Amino acid sequence: MTSKNSESTSNNPLEHIKVTGHHSEQSLKSLLPFGVFLGLFLGTGIVLTLQGVEFAFYQLPASIAIIPAILLAVYMGRDSVNDKISQFIQGAGHQNIITMCIIYLLAGAFATVAKATGSVDASVQLGLSIFPDYLLLPGLFLVAAFLATAMGTSMGTIAAIAPIALGFIESADVDASLIAGCIISGAIFGDNLSIISDTTIASTRSQGAHMKDKFRVNFKFAVPAALICLAILAVNGVTINHDVNQALDVIGFLPYIVILVLALSGVNVFLVLLIGIVLAAAIGMVNNGYQLASWVSDINKGFASMQDIFILSLFIGGLSELIKRQGGLSALTKSIERLTRKISPNNKKRAAGIGIGALAFCCNFFTANNTVSIIVTGETAKDLAQDGELSPAHSASLLDIFACINQGLLPYGAQALLLGATLKISPIEVVANAYYPMILFVVASFAFWRITKQQSTKK
Prior knowledge:
By secondary structure, the chain is mainly alpha-helical. Helices cover 75% and strands 0% of the residues.
């Protein structure tokens, strides 16, 4: 789903993916299977919602809705059936996909064990005693943003914070979708700005930009959007009415403290979650008589809670590989490239910027993987930047920003799926409240438009 949202799994993220499809012939028809998936999943949910059905988007699980799309992609391919199945398995078994799946399992296990041993309740009580009633939403945004910037992974951030957020929701009766929107917004902000993120590495390498230059450009776009988002959250009017226990269980909060410290120290997210699972169980055994048999059972329950998104991640990885091999992503890239050359003929910089942003945004829509979308479109983006005399830093920044914007708004993206599963809400509700990616889209577009206008005027 998204490699940067886990740990960086390769020293060179560009080595795994080629820009061109398996066949020389490139056709937008190859994107049809993904359209079928979205039509079934979103269409069914919308129709059932209009009919008043509760949990409408859960009636047809995404992991089931994607099966007809996979079958269509296999049918459309020109290779032998055995080859197409091999391609599907290769995509599903890609290192980035398997990494995400393991994070899902460990995050589910940690959330379940932490709740069973009282760590969630302890963290809620401590958190409620620190945050003012009216600043919970901005506070969650800032915590997620800081952690994601330091870790370079929005998925690791969400895995660490979501269980704590679940405690807030259950004890303070807060709208889960608002909390989810704050977390995913902060995580996307920090991940996009982080200099150790896979998307930053991929975008700077593909465009030949220096990390510090790309950061400066990104900073000008991201920070104003974050300040606007914080202002909106602060005046949202959400207030938590709660009673804090006199005796705060600081020991119960220890697993979360350890997780945050280890994550900020650069420890692998797998080890961070494993340590959290063990530590939460150990504290429960000492404080509450938590049993070994219960621990094993709770870990299994946590794994089971992530079954749907685990399967969907594998299927999307396989489907994306089929579409890529059949030339769908390359055709999309070339179509946007041709279109942008006709836009703003008197301002090459602006046309190049629009093309680069559109490439990253559209490609991510079909891959649900912001790092992959940057890698796939990197070569074309560099050509557009050179033709439009756009600096490598601006090109890298636009690639990263618009891929992350789309990733934060995808209901079938890894972040929304994990938050939806953890907080027990539809991923549609998660992205509907992801204010930051929406604001960043407007701010970045407006800022770049003004920059290129000034540059054009100077000429």
